[in-house]
Amino acid sequence: MKRRKKDIKIFKSRNFTIFVIFLILGLTISWLIWYFSAEVQQARQHKKEAEILVRKIQEQVEKYAVDSYGGETPEETYEMFLHALKTEDINLASKYFALDKQEEYKQFFVDIKNNNKWEEMIKDLFNPDNQKGEMKENNTYVVRVYNTGNYLIAQAVLKIPLNLTGTKNDLAPSIWKIIEF
After folding, report:
1. Span 70-180: which CATH code?
2. Can you give the residue ranges of every domain in the chain?
């Protein structure tokens, strides 16, 4: 009888060990299947993309927080911009644009200068009779420049940079930037 009880204990402990091994093996395989599933891979990819987006947004917020080029009114920003153009300081003129547009407009003005159209542009932009500015309902200010034939030749759109919720960016100075020219 003693031998039989001992055999049953060994049998039970061996069965229990085998059960535990299969349980661990089953859980490991289930976890691996879940971890490498398409849905989990996609979720990890989305998380990584969201982190990159948040980092880029933070970088933009920091850039706007230190950006001091522009005026407290759209007219002031536009006057500063015109003064920079008059002195042919393209680098300074481009700083009055929204940060993501600065390089684009810097190249635009370089092209105008290289094509010998600078003097013509300055003449049209500095004739006060040719300019009409107005505030629009979406908190933008539009300056339209007409030539002597009363044809629209340029238009500048100015706005205070907004945050992602569409409200004024409290971290950035309250300066107007040119968003389109």
Report:
1. 3.10.450
2. 2-64, 70-180
